[in-house]
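Preliminary data (for renewal application), magnesium ion complex.
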Amino acid sequence: MDITVKEISKVYTQGNNKIWALHKVSAEFPESVFAAVKGPSGCGKTTFVRIVGGIDEPYDGQVLYDGTDVFRLNEAKRNEIRLEKIGFVFQEPRLFPTLTAIENIYTPLLIKKQKIDKSHINELCEKLGITHLADRLPKDMSGGERQRVAVARALSVDPEVLITDEPTAHLDHENSEKLMEILLVLHQRLKQTLIVVTHDERIYKKADMIIDLDK
Ligand SMILES: Nc1ncnc2c1ncn2[C@@H]1O[C@H](COP(=O)(O)OP(=O)(O)OP(=O)(O)O)[C@@H](O)[C@H]1O
Ligand SMILES: [Mg+2]
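Predicted structure:
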């Protein structure tokens, strides 16, 4: 799926103040591209990827999935497309607290009523190094483990696009390198579009394209 972002703007209102989080940002994500989104804290990275992922509406501008204007669709249709095509890992990974790791990973498949491909899930868990956590609750995992489970959950349904918002923010150097390495291996294997928000220069160097929101 190709994603085209046309001059999107986003304004937040705080009392009488208007905060322009994005001002006329355009970008083009061809199918299977690996894109890094960078810029200083508060420049609008999270806002940008949430709009690209169809979660939040822009104030102005368009987001096209293979030419279809996502925010012209009604909410039900938009949710359906998002569930079908986009995997999202949030800056603060939100797992379902009462479900085990493996139950968390299966949830999108159940919502989508998609057949469970156990070998795909097992491979994901193995690559992400979380096989041994299958029966654990999120509260009994480290931040990095939770993040890896969140990645597995996002990838369980084989999305065409994976968006991760600073997936390595809470990890130490070694573990963040490991997680990025895994994301790249999975990207090369699954050929999804990968959009990563990151502050990590080593990641920009490996990306096919960089979106610098500071500019
Ligand atoms: N719900 C909101 N209400 C008001 N202002 C907001 C809201 N969400 C974000 N902002 C503001 O919009 C701007 C962009 O925020 P955003 O979270 O997109 O930045 P970011 O680049 O992801 O930052 P960080 O690197 O710290 O995660 C910031 O100035 C932020 O304070
Ligand atoms: Mg952010």
